[in-house]
Design a protein that fits this description.
- The protein is an alpha+beta fold.
- The protein is built from 18 helices and 16 strands.
- Strands 1-3-4 form a three-stranded antiparallel sheet. Strands 13-14-15 form a three-stranded antiparallel sheet. Strands 2-16 form a two-stranded parallel ribbon.
- It is globular and about 65 Å long.
Length: 577
């Protein structure tokens, strides 16, 4: 008999995401549905605004990848106005992008996704001396894995376990689940790096702040270039960025890389890890200029997993539709002509499996109608996956020498065939490889900035004029930590006439389209067997591998006064001493 499982909210992500699956008598997923349950409407907010202000508003799309939407909003306006920014501005933006990639991917694996791989309770049983020796199997110079360091980590977490709060920040998880595959010692290694990454991510955030003034929500980009002139021309500020870059790159190479190689060894026979890629169409876009002719990432598509053929990207084939999304106009529309008028139709009464495995009455998605605030982007009518795995696949198809080097080395170090990358493991490894690309080659953008300044070119901004009697349209399209991002703008009478942002998590998390084709999230769960319906860690592990970003700081009210959601917060009181 078919059963419905509701996972709501998916935690350890940005935003509100609900996943519902239908399973058969063998606990195999036969259908899946992805829903974003809150709407923000930034695209509506920027209408009729001065286009020069757009970037400062669009960076509020997300509280994590603020720089990505900031840069996209600024660049879309520059593209519309035909502005070519100076090389110094281009390279400075690239260094800020590298800073974000470091921060985003390290935080994602260790603090968001890592606990899907690492069993904290198991780590408490580990032998620190043995774990220290095991670490050398995955790195010639492992980081934070000395026996004394591991013993201190173990004690710190054990103190949490002995406290009244249970495991503290590690409480309420599925520890001991049968799909965890690390040994106690391997778990302890990852746990040590989890704590070390708390320090490293702070340094990565400081890297962004050197040129951006602050992080999150940097403020040094402007239409035409950048405003951080003194920072760019100050040798001490440049040296500070480079020092922090080397520190974070060292963690990437000695800890992050080693842990994913270790995961590849331990999880190579776990079905929920070696599956999870059922949409094998990938799209990516060039990003991070290293010099005047080369970018770190490549542009194009890969269809049906065929990396022998790079398909050119044609922007007019990008559309969004809302057949199953809570908007009035179904489309499909090209982003220049996109519409964003909400039309919430609610949930339905039904039954699902509760947290204790019992059947409970609950509200369910209207899977025959509209069920998500996310639209359904398509390329030439086809669903495609975006993200670091797409970056690697497109890079290999494009014969990108830097991507080919890091991907080939990873496959050699893990002993895996290239086909193994079409998996949850491959998607997780893709994020590591993007981080390693920045660690191994990001200094080339820094060197180009220094060379440009030494040549006597100190320009940081290009002049421009907005003719209020002229209509403009333009876009930003590029790659950010979660995948290919594009912002599309029309300008009329000197203000924004229309604006659409087609973000990575829209490409991946969108519901099925009018033809019934599932997006990557939904498709990734098809055929998945769940060991315990009350503890569906397999679902969470696969969805986390996409690094969902379902930004959600603005709540939506039903104009008819209907209740859309109820939230209860249990207060915690502290006794003053």
């Amino acid at each position: 008999m078919a059963k419905r499982i509701v996972v709501d909210p998916i935690t350890r992500i940005e935003g509100h995401l609900r996943i519902e699956v239908i399973v058969d008598d063998n606990n195999v997923v036969t259908d899946a549905f992805s829903s974003s349950t809150l709407w923000r409407g930034i695209e509506v907010i920027v209408k009729n605004r001065d286009p020069r202000d757009v970037g400062f508003m669009t960076q509020r799309i997300c509280g994590v990848c603020t720089y990505s939407h900031y840069k996209a909003g600024i660049t879309a306006v520059e593209n519309a106005l035909g502005i070519v920014i100076p090389p110094n501005a281009e390279y400075t933006r690239a260094l800020m992008n590298i800073s974000l990639i470091f921060h985003d991917h390290i935080v994602h694996f260790y603090h968001l996704h890592g606990l899907d791989w690492c069993d904290i309770v198991s780590a408490l049983k580990a032998d620190p001396s043995l774990a220290s020796k095991i670490a050398f199997n995955y790195s010639d110079n492992p980081l934070s894995t000395g026996a004394d360091e591991l013993r201190a980590v173990q004690k710190k977490v054990a103190d949490f376990a002995n406290a009244k709060s249970g495991l503290g920040p590690f409480a309420n998880a599925y520890w001991g689940h049968k799909t965890y595959r690390f040994s106690p010692e391997q778990n302890l290694i990852v746990l040590s790096h989890y704590l070390k990454a708390l320090e490293v991510q702070r340094v990565a955030a400081q890297m962004m702040a050197i040129f951006g003034s602050k992080q999150p929500h940097p403020q040094s980009l402007t239409v035409g270039g950048v405003t951080c002139v003194r920072d760019i021309l100050d040798p001490s500020r440049l040296g500070d960025w480079l020092t922090k870059y080397k520190y974070v790159a060292d963690f990437c190479n000695r800890a992050y890389y080693a842990d994913i190689v270790m995961a590849a060894e331990a999880y190579r026979d776990e079905p929920s890890v070696m599956g999870g890629v059922n949409v094998k169409n990938f799209v990516s876009h060039a990003e991070i200029p290293l010099n005047q002719t080369e970018y770190l990432y490549s542009t194009g598509l890969v269809y049906d997993g065929d990396i022998s053929t790079l398909v050119p990207l044609e922007e007019d084939k990008i559309t969004e539709e809302a057949t199953h999304s809570w908007y009035k106009d179904d489309g499909p529309f090209h982003p220049y002509d996109g519409k964003t008028e909400g039309h919430y139709t609610g949930l339905k009464d039904g039954e699902s499996i509760g947290p204790d495995g019992e059947t409970v009455r609950t509200k369910l998605l209207d899977i025959e109608g509209k069920y998500s605030w996310i639209k359904s982007p398509r390329y030439d009518g086809k669903p495609v996956e975006v993200g670091p795995l797409a970056t690697i696949m497109v890079g290999l198809a494009a014969n990108n020498p830097r991507i080919k080097t890091v991907a080939t080395q990873f496959l050699h170090d893990t002993g895996l065939p290239i086909e193994a990358l079409f998996s949850t493991l491959g998607r997780t490894a893709g994020r590591l490889l993007e981080c390693k690309l920045s660690a191994d080659y990001g200094h080339e953008a820094f060197d180009s900035l220094i060379s440009t300044i030494k040549s006597g070119d100190k320009r940081t901004c290009s002049p421009y004029v907005i003719d209020k009697n002229k209509e403009y349209k333009g876009r930003y399209i590029g790659s950010v930590p979660r995948g290919m991002l594009s912002h599309w703008i029309r300008i009329k009478n000197g203000v924004v006439e229309n604006y659409q942002a087609v973000v990575p998590s829209t490409w991946n998390a969108g519901p099925r389209d009018s033809s019934g084709n599932k997006g990557p999230y939904e498709a990734s769960l098809m055929g998945l067997q769940i060991a315990d319906l009350a503890q569906p860690i397999e679902i969470i592990r696969i969805i986390h591998s996409f690094d969902p970003c379902i930004a959600c700081s603005v709540h939506l009210m039903d104009m008819k006064g209907n209740e859309l959601g109820e939230y209860r917060i249990d207060p915690i009181t502290f006794n003053a001493k």
